Amino acid sequence: MEKAIKNKVSKAVVPAIDVMFQALSEFGAKVVPPKRILKMLPELFDHQDQNVRASSKGLTLELCRWIGKDPVKSILFEKMRDTMKKELEAELVNVTGAAKPSRKIRSEQDKEPEPEGVSEVVGPGHSEEVASDAPLEIDEYDLMDPVDILSPLEKSGFWDGVKATKWSERKEAVAELTKLASIKRIAPGDFSEVCRTLKKLIIDVNIAVAVEAIQAIGNLARGLRSHFSGSSRFLLPVLLEKLKEKKPTLTESLTHTLQAMHKAGCLNLADIVEDVKTAVKNKVPLVRSSTLNWVTFCIETSNKAVILKVHKDYVPICMESLNDGTPDVRDSAFSVLAAVAKLVGMRPLERSLEKLDDVRRKKLSEMIAGSGDSVAAVATSGTVQAARGSMSSVETSESSFVKKSAASMLSGKRPAPAAPANKKAAPTKSGASKKVDGAGRPETSRAIEPPEDVEPAEMSLEEIETRLGSIIQADTVSQLKSAVWKERLEAISSLKEQVEGLQNLDQSVEILIRLLCAIPGWNEKNVQVQQQVIEVITYLASTASKFPKKCVVLCLLGISERIADIKTRALAMKCLTAFTEAVGPGFVFDRLYKIMKEHKNPKVLSEGILWMVLAIDDFGVSHLKLKDLIDFCKDTGLQSSVAASRNATIKLLGALHKFVGPDIKGFLADVKPALLSALDAEYEKNPFEGASAIPKKTVRTSESMTSVSGGGLDSLPREDISGKVTPTLIKSLESPDWKVRLESIEAVNRILEEANKRIQPTGTGELFGALRGRLYDSNKNLIMTALTTIGGVASAMGPAVEKPSKGVLSDILKCLGDNKKHMRECVLNTLDSWVAAVHLDKMIPYIIAALFESKLGADGRKDLFDWLSKQLSGLSEFPDAIHLLKPAGSAMMDKSADVRKAAEGCISEILRVCGQEMIERNLKDIHGPALALVLERVRPANVYQESFESTKTITMGPSSKTSSKVAKAASNGISKHSNRSISSRVLPTKGSKPEPAMSIQDRAVQSQALLNVKDSNKEDRERMVVRRFKFEEPRMEQIQDLEGDMMKYFREDLNRRLLSPDFKKQVDGLEMLQKALPSIGNEIVEVLDILLKWFVLQFCKSNTTCLLKVLEFLPALFNLLRDEAYILSESEAAIFLPCLIEKLGHNIEKVREKMRELAKQILHAYSATKSFPYILEGLRSKNNRTRIECADLVGFLIDQHGAEISGQLKSLQLVASLTTERDGETRKAALNTLATGYQILGEDIWRYLGKLTDAQKSMIDDRFKWKVREMEKKERRSPW
């Protein structure tokens, strides 16, 4: 569309606008990004064709419906002519109501249930459901382009102005900053010096200057958001201290700035705990109260998950402040506690509030209740009004008008519903009767019902009889009250007959249950009457189409007591089962826990648990909260002093084991040994059946649809350990003291034990990164401990481990290169844990890379092949194993007999799980002894010799004079297609004249696309990156892989040139690519990994002309990638960056210069954190020039991205080690880099340099002093 709107023909532009208009109106702003449309519109406003202008106005109005009028005005109106502004202002009056998408993309159609119409809006609880379907809210910040303010600030005279002696000049300088920072979105940059200056100005003697500085900070926070977080923490203590001032203007600006810093995401409650603790101990009461008021604001504007994490830090602060001598401080502390209670409830506060006296507790309760009522009232009224308004407007507008073109939005067509101006008040879901999905199919709507009221209200017998009416005969009711048991028995028998004869039972269920609970009631002594009562209740529960949960609540205590009596036990258990079928086992179990736990009769507990055993057999565990059930068994059942209750609980846990599996044992590890042995025996009687354990009965209510299905391992709860993986723990894992590191690893193991070895992946990314570092520890025992812990984390996390542990598996496999058998066994145990969590297919790419790694060693390679054979032997079919055929084939030619034997065993398993057909399709990947072995096993004996000879010819083709060999291969029955890769690489003989033939071929393919990415499978290629290119001379199989990929995706003439042995042809191929580069951006991205491999290949060759052409092309390529907003993937970086870094030390100065510029260009675009390890690898290079360039790059990275790479600054000791080199240039580069680090870090840099000799210290210290002098000359402040 972006290209189409630039078309010179107006008739082509209007349909393009209409397509964007229709996509936006039907799919909404979530699918169609409004930012790109906003960028296109300004040039359309001045279009010479009036139809284009009208369509652009219509598209603008449609944008207003989705993102609101204010963002559109602020972004677009300044770019319009005055006439256009007036026209649009007039049209915006007609934009009303709320916009909602009428269609969904396919992925959303699969995920989301059918939309439900709203017939009525009831209560505040319902409003949450209604609001959940509200239109997408667009943040205006995301629509704006970032604007650089540092450059204009430099030119404005700001730095001179802030140093002026006159307060008016200082104020004007800061006002200029405030004005520049008032834009919606500020481009990130180095604001550290600006913030240091503002920090001084906050405490300026002149109030006006201080106010202006504080307002500037607020504007910077709003414009930079998360990019201002570090500066916000730097400025916060001064801002809180300044709250002591009583001037209204200063107080107001401080309040607004502090609130802006939190709302913009610069500060979060977890970061500011220490600052708040300091502020509430300030001598000035105003600082204490104002700080607590700000904390209240932060809590009220945070979500529940955040407060659950931090309330333990803030409640003690407030409890201490409640004893403050100043009433305002005490009131502010109460406000904080009330805000916490509103979000997370009273339970987390109970223990702390026990210390309060009755007066304070009452005051707090009143504050919570008062705020809760007002919020609920506002929510309810707002919901009802919004629902009514949106229903009426949307129904009428949607039914009367169908949007077809953008111009149809203009006056005289119809009013356009708009997105709300106030983003905080989210509109509620409207009640359209029908809705059309992505395929245009109408869907029937269903009214959303409010949550069922489960708590029964009190009702007297007289009221029950009045409401009963004529449902039951009056004589029957009076007989039920009789003192004579025979009359009661006769009456209950009569009532049973009357109930069974009722036609409309559903309406009378609750009143009949209430009658039976009142008379004869649960205190009835006659067993026969009791039995009849239970039978009537069972009949009602099993017959009524909707049995209310409050009826279950009314009966549950009485029925559970009847279970304890052997005469009524069978009927009572049958009644409980009927309840379970009616309302679901989850509700019945939750209510029974409390009854059985508190009842004095031990048989209520033991017999109730036995009924639970039957219920689990009947209904499974998919409807149950397993953690609650296991906690009940541990805390109540197994702790009972009655043997019958303990035995029943053991049976219940055994029944759970059948559905859940052995993971249940982790939750019972702290049970007494005698009980554990009894549990193990019960588990053997109830072995894990997994998916084959099918429930016998189903639940009638909607609970069966909404609950989690299937049970099994994932039914067990997983604990969020992100709160326990603290920064202190992560730091301790990297401690220089091995004992601290060991203790930290053991702390991780304890966290897993406390979580019952069932954890969520949340917040484990840093943990994996820290444990990964321990795999390179100098202490071998620590490495083995870390391996065991990583395996434990993988087992505890399950399939979700794959995402947060990216790259860890490759480091685990590298440990197989150790010569100690015990170490390799630890690695294999970790792999066992890993494969149990994620399955073998996810591990294959990492295993292949490890098998091709030269450092793995014979023992490691042999162990890995044996492990693979063991894993494959347990599988009947596994197509992904075909990828292992190539590395296994290469290992058949290994020097070690053990490796060859292990590889042969692995190949046998690969043949078994992949099948003959797949193996034959992949024979080209193997050769030599492996090929002979495969052909012997998959082909008949008479075909074997011929096939082997022909395949052998193929593999030998590229290495000889080729003409006769190709002919021979063709005579052996190899097809023309299969020889294509060989013939395309045949060197021309002396007498041949290939040029005319090439030109003819070129003309034949000119009509084809330069790059054919139709069947590209880039994701699969990235997953299968198996080996790193060697920098000296790449392996033959690497070159063959590259040539195969290029032949598949590159046009024939381009492929022929790039793979030609003549460097001039290669230059011609690059020129072809460079000319087409602007028009093939998407295709380039799709085959970027293949191109990068080709560039690496050219880096490894010695031809300077071709290399310079490559270095001319690469900057243009990376500029294109930047324009396409594409960032190198990790696998692409792993292909290209190692070779680029190594070749930075090229012996030709011109090449070095171009390489250096290219490296800096890539570092600007690629993540500094991710590229840093490659540069550090270059510091270990044997080439002095490479080490010099890499040291310079480290300095460049520290200077540009100091904060970003702070976690890897320990690697500065590598740079420091270069100061001992004999080569003067190397020492000079290292010292310059360290001086740059000193400029950023100050004296803290010494912590990262490791152990230094006295000579090194002296040399580095001299350089630092020289740097200070240089900085002073430039009037820059010393870093400390």
Structural description of this entry:
It is found in: Cytoplasm, Cytoskeleton. Residues 99-126, 405-456, 970-997 are annotated as: Disordered. It is built from 64 helices and 2 strands. Helix 42 runs parallel beside helix 44. It is globular, with a radius of gyration of 38 Å. The chain has 1280 residues and is an all-alpha fold. It has 6 domains: 4-112 and 386-418, Leucine-rich Repeat Variant; 144-372, Alpha Horseshoe (Leucine-rich Repeat Variant); 461-715, Leucine-rich Repeat Variant; 727-913, Alpha Horseshoe (Leucine-rich Repeat Variant), CATH 1.25.10; 1020-1129, Leucine-rich Repeat Variant, CATH 1.25.10; 1167-1280, Leucine-rich Repeat Variant (Alpha Horseshoe), CATH 1.25.10.10. Strands 1-2 form a two-stranded antiparallel ribbon. The chain is 63% helix and 0% strand. The longest helix is centred in the N-terminal third of the chain and has 43 residues, at 358-400. Strand 1 and strand 2 form a beta hairpin. The model is unreliable at 113-135, 372-403, 412-449, 702-713 and 940-1001 (pLDDT under 50).
Number of domains: 6
The dominant shape is globular
Q: Any idea what the radius of gyration is?
A: 38 Å
**Beta strands, count:** 2
Helix share, percent: 55-70%
The top-level CATH class of the largest domain is: Mainly Alpha
Low-confidence sequence ranges: 113-135, 372-403, 412-449, 702-713, 940-1001
**Beta-strand residue percentage:** under 5%
Major sheet strand order: 1-2
Determine the structural class based on helices, strands and strand pairing.
mainly alpha
Distance between the termini: 54 Å
Topology-level CATH name of the largest domain:
Leucine-rich Repeat Variant
CATH architecture group name of the largest domain: Alpha Horseshoe
CATH homologous superfamily identity of the largest domain: Leucine-rich Repeat Variant
Helical stretch count?
64
Kindly report the average pLDDT value. 78
- Describe the main β-sheet briefly: 2 strands, antiparallel
Keywords: Cytoplasm, Cytoskeleton, Microtubule, Repeat
Region (Disordered): 99-126, 405-456, 970-997
Biased composition (Low complexity): 413-429
Family: Belongs to the TOG/XMAP215 family.
